[in-house]
Amino acid sequence: MRDAATRQGPGRMLIAVYGIFALAATSRSAVQLATRFDQAPVAYLLSALAAVVYVLATVALARGSHRVALVACGVELAGVVVVGLVSLLVPRAFPDATVWSSFGIGYGFIPLVLPVLGLLWLRRTA
User: Please, are residues 53 and 18 in contact by the beta-carbon 8 Å criterion?
Assistant: First the structure.
């Protein structure tokens, strides 16, 4: 029953937004890795990691895999906080932006808010 609840109501919107971010981050990282990897390898690999996390969260939420979704949202939140702090404190470490740079400023801070909403939804449906 819990797994079905994760996919209903606001959960559907959460899955849709995660799906959009999975597509956007995957596309962005694929282009960056294929065309400019030598310019900012750390930033582009972090974008690829973000893409994997978004895909994993999308699939886990859509399938009702509560534990996997919980881990994915937790990793995403940790990533956006750590990368956000480092990108502000040591800007030279990121010569080009990632999805999580400056707490997701390039995406309207959605990368910072999304995992919080995901974790809250997972807690509510637990």
Answer: no
How far from chain centre, in Å, is Cα 66? 17
- Domain residues of the chain, as ranges? 10-125
Percent of the chain surpassing pLDDT 70: 94
Contacts 24+ apart (CB under 8 A), 3-12: 3/63, 3/64, 3/65, 3/66, 4/64, 5/125, 6/61, 6/64, 6/66, 6/69, 6/121, 6/122, 6/125, 7/61, 7/62, 7/64, 10/121, 11/61, 11/121, 11/125
- What's the pLDDT tens digit per position in 3-41? 566 767 888 999 999 999 999 999 999 999 999 999 989
CA distance 74 to 53: 10
Neighbours of 108 (CB within 10 A): 9
